[in-house]
Amino acid sequence: MDHVDKILAQWRAERPDLQLRPMGLLGRIKRLGSHLGQGMDRVFTAHGLNAASFDVLATLRRSGAPYALTPSQLMDWTMVTSGTMTNRLDRLEAKGLVKRVRSEQDARSVTVQLTEQGLALIEDCVTEHVANQHRLAGTLSEAEQVELDRLLSKWLAGFEPPED
User: Fold this and answer.
1) By C-alpha distance, which of 36, 34, 10 is closest to 23?
2) Helix axes 71-78 and 51-62, enclosed angle (nearest 10)
3) Which stretches make up the HTH marR-type domain (predicted)?
4) Quick check: pTM over 0.90?
5) What is the largest CA-CA distance in the chain?
6) SS3 letters for 27-85?
7) SS3 at position 114
């Protein structure tokens, strides 16, 4: 019996008229999210990052050489506001991990690019991050991971339209 089972048992005793399966699912997802977030944060912290800074650096890295995107593209990929992105970029730039490069054609246009230091850091961090994700998902077999991924994708599609 896990913590969620105990909560469900209390509700069943107090409100036997309620169908509680979704409460169990959502409660476990919430608790898993907390545990998984803490597990991933350990890797980020070990590299001097947090989830937000990792997100920006990883987005730039996976964009391919020259590892540069506009702030608008970064906002689209990371789903944050302009002000939030500006703060993240300011911090990363102060650490020497990214640089803002002005366009030669349009002085108002800027791209954000990984520096050599930023590229080296994200290479190390993402390698450890993926190994950590394997560890965090390791309670499930490969087949269970595939099935859970399929089910979560189906569930997510009910909230977000499929992308091209």
Assistant:
1) 10
2) 120
3) 22-157
4) no
5) 69
6) HHHHHHHHHHHHHHHHHHHHCCCCHHHHHHHHHHHHCCCCCEECHHHHHHHHCCCHHHH
7) strand
Contact 114, 61 (CB under 8 A): yes
Residues 6+ apart with CB under 8 A from 23: 7, 8, 11
Q: Looking at beta carbons, which pairs linking 41-46 to residues 24 or more positions away fall under 8 Å? A: 42/132, 43/125, 43/128, 43/129, 43/132, 44/125, 44/129, 46/128
DSSP state of 144: H
Distance CA 106, CA 126 (A): 34
**One-letter amino acid of 124:** D
> What burial class does residue 35 get, using C-beta atoms within 10 Å of its C-beta: 0-12 exposed, 13-18 middle, 19+ buried?
exposed
CB contact set of 117 (below 8 Å; sequence gap of 6+): 96, 97
**Cα 160 to the chain's mean position, in Å?**
16
Count of positions (residues) in the chain: 164
